[in-house]
Amino acid sequence: MRRVAGRLLMRLLDAFIYAHQALPVLWAGLRALNLCEPAGASPELARGYTSMAVVAGTLPIRSVAETWSRRALEVAERVGNPADLAFVLCRNAVYGAYVARWAEAEAWLERAMGIVDSVGDVRLAEECRALLTVVSCYQGKFARGLPLMAWLEHSARRRGALQTEHWALHYQAHIHLRLGDYAKARAALEQTLAWTEAQGGQTDRIIVEGALALLRLREGDAEGARAAAEQALARMSSGKPVAHFVYFGVMTVAEVFLTLWERGADASLVTSAKAARREAEVFAKVFPFGEAAARLWRGREAWLDGDATRAFEAWRRCIAVASRKGQSFEEAHARLALARHLPSEDPARCAHQQRAVELFSRLGMWDAQARTEALARS
Fold first, then answer.
1. Angle CA(34)–CA(99)–CA(72) in degrees, nearest 5?
2. Rounded to two decimals, what is the model's pTM?
């Protein structure tokens, strides 16, 4: 009975994560462990440990998260069936993503996918591929996610899993945006907007509204971009982030507001831009992989506030953090910012511009590459 209750609580924990509810997440996870631990080693206990590693990582209590993820794998290897082991590997990879341990997270996911594909656990196979996609995007490897999301969309439609189908559309939209294919980004968003607004969780809506805001900005619709960004910001401000993938919404909203501010702002827009930048900071305190992006936007805000010294420091720190954590997207944008704003006589401008071009080219971000190359001709 304890084991059954533990499994039910872990399903509830997932629901609370998608609903963006931090305290219920903690309650469900601790309750599951309290039920399962007295019964000794079991598959449910392994699942409980890995689920609580994910939760502890957001508090953040890193040492506890490390211990629980290690115990989860030990118990699953000893008493779990293949599906239990795959579940633990997948959830351990979530914690690995939090702390930017990309190689470890990817190795866990590849192993998990091999297991679930062999035993026919389609739902977990979908979750593993979705996670591998976001882990790739966190590193700036956007194109890698497209075949994974095509697989996910096809799999979800075949079994009538609407939520999973729309996850695939959310990530496809974001990837196409980053790769500069705005027509494909709009096509993906148009397929998911109505469903997400009617049935999606709070996190889903933040991601989609952020993507819509950035798409409208790229298409020249500043008013529409601001409206979508304001909606997402209101949702983000309602509570602490509990799902790592809300990163896609948090960072696009900060980008949109700061870009609009740079083009000319009224007082309310500046207020929203600063609030969005703070949300990026809050996210990074919970999820360390977000630090580079938070520093990128901190530099942008400082520049717009007229504090060049603080802006340059934030962008240089962004480059150092992004380089150490293997996040080329953030590094490229920080280098682009320095190339744009350092004094004309500073020899570092050219070096930053050249390195940004190299990084954008490697990431397949051709429009960003072209804009950066144009700096040398201006």
1. 30
2. 0.90
